[in-house]
Amino acid sequence: MKNKLLKYGIFIIVLFFAFQSVVNIASADDHYKGDRYYYPKYEKSDKNNYFEKFDKHDHDDDDDDYKWKGEYEQEGNYKNLQQNTVQPSYWNVWTRDTHISISNNLPVEEAKKVSFNLNGKTEKLLVFPSNGQLLVSGEKMAKLFGIKSKYYEQSRILELSNGQEELIVRAGTNAAYENMVKTPMPAKALSYEKTVYLPISVIANAFGYSVDWDEANETFILEQFY
């Protein structure tokens, strides 16, 4: 009888510790999906659930930034880039490269409304100079291009799409998701007027447009290159 009671007691203790282990694992898993860690590695996320979950939390941007030449120099780590040739940055070309210098030659040097011309249609949009780039409203540029846009206010994310082409940008970071691939932008996106402002080069080039400056008419000229 004593042996049976002993075996029964040992069985209860084993079950108790097994249950505790399961609870701890579940808790750790919940923590991993918390604010700090859940923000996408977009290619691993279920796109249909991604924004719904993202809007419920305030996430860190730490893993969503790319370092540029100037930032490496400030931190004394410029030697990390010496093996790569640092390319000049262009306000109208999205090189998708982090090894670039900051452009100081901008056609617009203060925030103001400027004319954009596409296929003979002209529209004035607000332009912000920022870190050697010119930022424009992603939603207004999307309207000009005739492509879809959707803004997620709580997470400050702008989703742009045209057929199979997709661009997703979050204000406060210099990372964009271009067709599900995390790609560096030449400047951080900006949150303003309840939307996201991003570099002209990024939105134009991502959807197949070139952008040039007509000095005589103070107008940006947009042309489709494919």
TrEMBL record:
It comes from Ureibacillus thermophilus. Pfam families: Cu_amine_oxidN1 (PF07833). Residues 1-28 form the signal peptide. This is Copper amine oxidase N-terminal domain-containing protein. It comes from the Bacteria. InterPro entries: Cu_amine_oxidase-like_N, Mao_N_sf. Keywords: Signal. Residues 128-221 form the Copper amine oxidase-like N-terminal domain.
